[in-house]
């Protein structure tokens, strides 16, 4: 008797597609995604990586898990509040509700009373101006980098942007503000030195070719020692006397001072100090969606809004909705994590430590996202074996701990208290897998 080629036993496409769970998957996934999953397991069986009898169970497991988005929620146990790799700011409940509302047809650019076209994002602009009365006008674009490109293009293309050498920063992953600004056709006119810049350096650089003066908050590093910089207050009379707009890129996006972060600049203070336009991100300390905020003098904001580039960097309706709700709604998670009560953090951490029988150690959280560098937010962490980190990241729910000094640390600052028990379960599961693995190696 000839052996039957096992490949002939691989289930047929039509039979697999007819399985009830696969038919159900086709109501929530595209036909192509489902077909690709079917083909993937059949091919694995053809290559001998799966037995023919394993194709159906593997497919059923895969369709049950497969969602239309491959993004997975992560519990942030790092203590880093604005975590760029985790998408920066988690949104408030109010912002999430606004996102859902905005996901359908909405009056983002329509006056329902008379049926005519209206100013895009008028509600968001009004919310920003109410929260920051020092600003005469506001414009929202895609992100902070886009805001900076728009400002330098509209004010200084073909001309000079005067900026201190101490403020020419790289904002992450190789993106340099210098390259960004030069891409607009503006020329950088660098003044001063890396550690010291004086008012007379600016005064000597201003002339008929100056498009704007730019102050950049070097948010992700600090220069200590023999340093000096020129404040907005000192610069503003000089810029005004020369009729040159003064732009301040703050990065982080506090609208008003926060006593928890005394070193962090804010929009209201920068405007009161004489900046004509202030730039900030929506998804750093403001705690909202990705967005770039431009706030300041009406005449300058209008100039930016009318520039053709404004259309290329305009904010999406989802971001406009979430931003308005972030400003008008309850304090967003970023602010709650920043202001977390130390005693409560300790009690939460100790409860989990007791349940798990692991030690609690002092641990500083961070603002992150290039904000308040080196500024510690005192708190606590569970200390676990380093080998747990990978298991926690790949578990369900996924938990991102901090790996430091040979330990895996769980900081609850950025974990909503209602998720404490999910952390507990995740750590228990990971500890159990670690024991199994350890026993396997020992035996
Ligand atoms: C973060 C940052 C930017 C870029 O803002 P994005 O919203 O990330 O585009 C620009 N300037 C400064 C000073 C920053 O800190």
From TrEMBL:
<keyword id="KW-0663">Pyridoxal phosphate</keyword>
<dbReference type="InterPro" id="IPR025862">
    <property type="entry name" value="SelA_trans_N_dom"/>
</dbReference>
<protein>
    <recommendedName>
        <fullName>L-seryl-tRNA(Sec) selenium transferase</fullName>
        <ecNumber>2.9.1.1</ecNumber>
    </recommendedName>
</protein>
<keyword id="KW-0711">Selenium</keyword>
<dbReference type="InterPro" id="IPR018319">
    <property type="entry name" value="SelA-like"/>
</dbReference>
<keyword id="KW-0808">Transferase</keyword>
<feature type="domain" description="L-seryl-tRNA selenium transferase N-terminal">
    <location>
        <begin position="7"/>
        <end position="46"/>
    </location>
</feature>
<dbReference type="InterPro" id="IPR015421">
    <property type="entry name" value="PyrdxlP-dep_Trfase_major"/>
</dbReference>
<keyword id="KW-0648">Protein biosynthesis</keyword>
<feature type="modified residue" description="N6-(pyridoxal phosphate)lysine">
    <location>
        <position position="284"/>
    </location>
</feature>
<dbReference type="GO" id="GO:0016740">
    <property type="term" value="F:transferase activity"/>
</dbReference>
<comment type="function">
    <text>Converts seryl-tRNA(Sec) to selenocysteinyl-tRNA(Sec) required for selenoprotein biosynthesis.</text>
</comment>
<dbReference type="Pfam" id="PF12390">
    <property type="entry name" value="Se-cys_synth_N"/>
</dbReference>
<keyword id="KW-0963">Cytoplasm</keyword>
<dbReference type="Pfam" id="PF03841">
    <property type="entry name" value="SelA"/>
</dbReference>
<comment type="similarity">
    <text>Belongs to the SelA family.</text>
</comment>
<dbReference type="InterPro" id="IPR015424">
    <property type="entry name" value="PyrdxlP-dep_Trfase"/>
</dbReference>
<dbReference type="InterPro" id="IPR004534">
    <property type="entry name" value="SelA_trans"/>
</dbReference>
<comment type="pathway">
    <text>Aminoacyl-tRNA biosynthesis; selenocysteinyl-tRNA(Sec) biosynthesis; selenocysteinyl-tRNA(Sec) from L-seryl-tRNA(Sec) (bacterial route): step 1/1.</text>
</comment>
